[in-house]
């Protein structure tokens, strides 16, 4: 099957509040796919549905040909083993060294002998340029380096699907570029598929093969980064060119300013 993840006619809400509706998305194998949209548009919720932390009210999410919400606990656990996840903020265990952080999933999910774990961890740290920082703790490295350790940890088990939730948040421009390039390199070196949830147009467009734009729980535009840069869709234009007003209004809806200032002429 050419798509590692397929979302079909998906409906999801928290309680009564609908978050995603009639959602269809494809994530082809080997690609880096960006899911973009404003705060609260439902991006993280999509990752949680793919990871099976949430179940849809209707429709399906399939990963590797299996409908996620129909799996029993053992099958879901086995599927999750194929997924790597970089959570928002990419929090590391603060009292463990970079080495121990990356070793953690290997010790948790495999019975590999210690020498092999040792070598695998050094290879992962080497891939993110931090082999020589193996014995440092998060408080002893920069935020950008910590994010790279978190990347190494996310790919420790050679996942076939890697999900990144806002991997560029809080990084300086140089670290952002380094992180973006690493996401692409790790994807291609491992032959995996990456889903990148981000607000950051510049970094995401630089490495993504395909982009989905999500607004109010629906896909409003999709295509290659080049196609999205040329798009005349009002939401995409507002997002890509960082315009303050457009389909996403600058003003929180409500009374007009004139009404609030008592200047509205009554007819
Ligand atoms: N556990 C929850 N219970 C109720 N509502 C929630 C819960 N988690 C998220 N929401 C709401 O669902 C909506 C979508 O949230 P989600 O985190 O998927 O958005 P997002 O696009 O990832 O936003 P951001 O970029 O700000 O992280 C938001 O309005 C949020 O307030």
From TrEMBL:
User: Organism, per UniProt?
Assistant: Paraherbaspirillum soli
Span of domain ABC transporter: 5-241
Which InterPro entries does this UniProt record tie to the protein? AAA+_ATPase, ABC_transporter-like_ATP-bd, ABC_transporter-like_CS, P-loop_NTPase
Q: Which Gene3D superfamilies match?
A: P-loop containing nucleotide triphosphate hydrolases (3.40.50.300)
Query: Which SMART domains would you find in this protein's record?
Result: AAA (SM00382)
Gene Ontology MF terms: ATP binding
Q: Which UniProt keywords apply?
A: ATP-binding, Cell membrane, Membrane, Nucleotide-binding, Transport
Please indicate if the UniProt record lists Kinase as a keyword.
no
Supply the name of the protein: ABC transporter ATP-binding protein
């Amino acid at each position: 099957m050419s798509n590692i993840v397929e979302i079909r006619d998906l409906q999801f809400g928290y309680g009564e509040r609908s978050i995603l509706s009639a959602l269809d998305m494809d994530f082809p194998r080997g690609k880096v796919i960006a899911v973009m949209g404003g705060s609260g548009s439902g991006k993280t919720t999509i990752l949680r549905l793919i990871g099976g932390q949430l179940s849809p009210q209707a429709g399906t999410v399939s990963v590797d040909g299996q409908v996620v919400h129909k799996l029993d606990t053992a099958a879901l656990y086995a599927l999750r083993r194929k997924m790597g996840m970089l959570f928002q903020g990419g929090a590391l265990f603060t009292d463990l060294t970079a080495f121990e952080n990356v070793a953690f999933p290997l010790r948790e999910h495999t019975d590999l002998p210690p020498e092999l774990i040792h070598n695998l961890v050094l290879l992962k740290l080497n891939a993110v340029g931090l082999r020589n920082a193996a014995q440092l703790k998060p408080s002893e490295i920069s935020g950008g380096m910590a994010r790279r350790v978190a990347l190494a940890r996310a790919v420790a088990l050679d996942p076939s699907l890697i999900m990144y939730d806002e991997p560029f948040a809080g990084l300086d421009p140089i670290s952002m570029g380094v992180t973006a390039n690493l996401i692409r390199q790790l994807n291609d070196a491992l032959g995996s598929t990456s889903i990148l949830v981000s607000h950051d147009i510049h970094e995401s467009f630089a490495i993504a093969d395909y982009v989905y734009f999500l607004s109010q729980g629906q896909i409003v535009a999709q295509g290659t980064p080049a196609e999205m840069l040329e798009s005349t869709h009002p939401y995409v234009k507002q997002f890509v060119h960082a315009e303050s007003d457009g389909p996403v209004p600058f003003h929180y809806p409500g009374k007009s300013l004139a009404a609030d200032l008592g200047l509205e002429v009554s007819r």
